[in-house]
Amino acid sequence: MSSTATDVVRLLTVNGGTLAVAESLTGGLVAAEITSVPGASKAFRGSVTAYATDLKHRLLGVDATLLAQRGAVDPQVAAQMAAGVRAALGADWGIATTGVAGPDPQDGQAVGTVFVAVHGPPGAGSRSAGGGKVEHLRLNGDRAEIRMESARSVLALLLRELEGEQTGNERAQDTERNGGF
């Protein structure tokens, strides 16, 4: 069980937030990390493992033209997966992974090319523009290492966003306590 997953569940629970996960290359590893945390059921809504490209469109609402033109390993696809799973499962936050774990390149992308995304309430988090953020990773290692690092990275991205939201809430409370100054 990772401390990042524990921190994510703790912050979501404290803030009354919920999470949904969309996974491709990680194949359920992110959901497994989250559900390994005692009390995860207070915050975790569920996950969609959309390994096949057509499922990204059918289940998560990823634009079919985007998938046809760029393939599944693309930053916009990751962003749409995160937003789509958030909407489909009725969660406050959605996170997503898509990429190439190997052994062969996919959609013109090299092994180790990964996109992780988070989509939260508008204006939430420390770095979210319009509720979403995508990170492009270039990972080394074998298939298992790339998949594990992708899962770790998406949870770390979400944790940074949740910590930013927490900091923003504390600042707002300080402003209220100090008469708006």
TrEMBL record:
InterPro entries for this protein: CinA-like_C, CinA_C
Residue intervals of the CinA C-terminal domain: 3-161
Gene3D superfamilies referenced in this protein's UniProt entry, alphabetically: CinA-like
Protein name: Damage-inducible protein CinA
